[in-house]
Write a structure and sequence with these properties.
It contains 11 helices and 7 strands. Pfam families: RmuC (PF02646).
Length: 437
């Protein structure tokens, strides 16, 4: 059988074509598989990045939650400490009160039992001033402890008050932005009102711990009128000047595009820096009659405006410090004012302690004088008792006593109009008979 070469060639061609087609199909399948693998890898990478981002956010939230838990624990610990201190103060006050009451009661009871029927008028003249001084001293000590306990109890409300005040002032600032925008005089007056409210909330008293709008003169004769001069213990002062920058901040806050927002932010920072330069050039440290610190506090009454400026330009604080200016907002200024108020409270308590020590010394001197007077009264009473006993002996006891002689005269015929005391007469006659025996 003869094989046709054409058939063989056709068969081989078919095989080659089939092989080529199979290889092409496999290559396409491999390319599709590789493409799918690349897409899967890309999706996996995206998912990994998204997962990492979510993990970072979760960790940040957990960190913030831990910080809040820690702050809550610290606040609770401080509250517990305040409660403990309050209880200790109340116990100390009670012990002091009981000690003074016991001291006074022992003195009066011991001495009054000895002399309650003798020379009452003289004792009252001595005891009344002493009792008044003891009561005054006791009241002074009680008032001191009561005031301190009230102040300590009020401390636990200060943080809440500060937070509420900050929120209220921020809301007020935002509500007044449009009304104040562009009117420098109105903005300045509003800033002074906010500063005055902070001073009142801090517990400081105008005319005592701080002065407002005080007219002061520098060494070169220039007159200035800072908003507030806060006095510190040890003859030191802090000057506070309110500066309001709202025009640029309002444009930044209400901007609809990034360009508008950036322009508003630049204007806001420029306004704050202009206030810093102007306040630094006044050189309040050279004012006569003010023992100020090296720095002047520049108060920005709008908390968000203050935070925005600081966050946008971290060098702004150093820019102010180079000109002896400390930037403050309602929050940190309230903390500073409360600290100053606590310094004054401790100063007043120290002065009260000195006055108590002085009064205690005077009370001790009075007690010494009182004890000397009591000894003198005792010796005088002993002398009077001796004289009384001698007089009674001559009158109604012993041989030849006056009452016996008078009775003998009556028996001899004397006619008296009064009769002697029967008991005295019987005692006199009985002692006379005993003397004869």
């Amino acid at each position: 059988m003869v094989i046709d070469p054409t058939l063989i060639l056709a068969t081989l061609a078919s095989a080659v074509i089939a092989f080529a087609l199979g290889w092409a199909v496999q290559a396409k399948a491999r390319r599709q598989a590789e493409h799918h693998a690349v897409e899967a890898l890309a999706r996996h990478q995206q998912l990994s990045e998204a997962h990492a981002l979510l993990d970072n956010k979760l960790q940040a939230k957990e960190t913030e939650l831990n910080r809040l838990h820690s702050a809550l624990a610290d606040a609770r610990a401080r509250e517990e400490g305040l409660r403990t201190t309050l209880a200790q103060q109340q116990q100390s006050e009670q012990r002091q009160s009981e000690q003074f009451e016991n001291l006074a009661n022992r003195i009066f009871e011991q001495k009054s039992q000895q002399f309650q029927h003798q020379n009452q008028g003289q004792l009252n003249a001595v005891l009344t001033p002493l009792q008044q001084q003891l009561e005054g001293f006791k009241k002074q000590v009680q008032d001191s402890y009561t005031n301190e306990a009230k102040e300590r109890f009020a401390l636990k409300h200060q943080l809440d008050d500060l937070k509420a005040l900050n929120l209220r002032m921020s809301e007020d600032a935002l509500n007044l932005t449009k009304a104040l925008k562009g009117d420098n005089k109105v903005m300045g007056n509003w800033g002074e009102v906010v500063l005055s409210r902070l001073l009142t909330q801090s517990g400081l008293r105008e005319g005592h711990e701080y002065e407002t709008q005080a007219a002061l003169t520098q060494t070169d004769g220039k007159r200035y009128q800072p908003d507030v001069v806060v006095h510190l213990p040890d003859d030191k002062d802090v000057i506070i000047d309110s500066k309001v920058s709202l025009v640029g901040y309002e444009r930044y806050f209400n901007a609809e595009t990034d360009d508008e927002r950036q322009r508003g932010l630049r204007d806001h920072l420029a306004s704050v820096k202009a206030h810093i330069k102007g306040l630094g050039e006044k050189d309040y440290q050279q004012l006569q009659g003010v023992r100020t610190l090296d720095y002047v506090l520049m108060f920005i009454p709008v908390e968000p405006a203050f935070i925005t400026a600081i966050e946008s330009d971290p060098d702004l604080v150093n820019f102010a410090l180079e000109r002896n200016i400390l930037l403050t907002s309602p929050t940190n200024l309230m903390v500073a004012l409360r600290t100053i108020n606590n310094l004054w409270r401790f100063e007043y308590q120290s002065r009260n302690a000195q006055e108590i020590a002085t009064q205690g010394g005077k009370l001790y001197d009075k007690l010494v004088g009182f004890s000397d007077d009591l000894l003198k009264v005792g010796r005088a009473l002993e002398t009077a008792q001796g004289s009384y006993d001698k007089a009674v002996s001559k009158f109604s006891s012993g041989r030849g006593n006056l009452l016996k002689q008078a009775e003998q005269m009556k028996q001899l015929g004397a006619t008296p109009s009064k009769k002697p005391n029967t008991q005295l007469l019987d005692n006199a006659l009985a002692e006379t008979e005993l003397a004869k025996e």
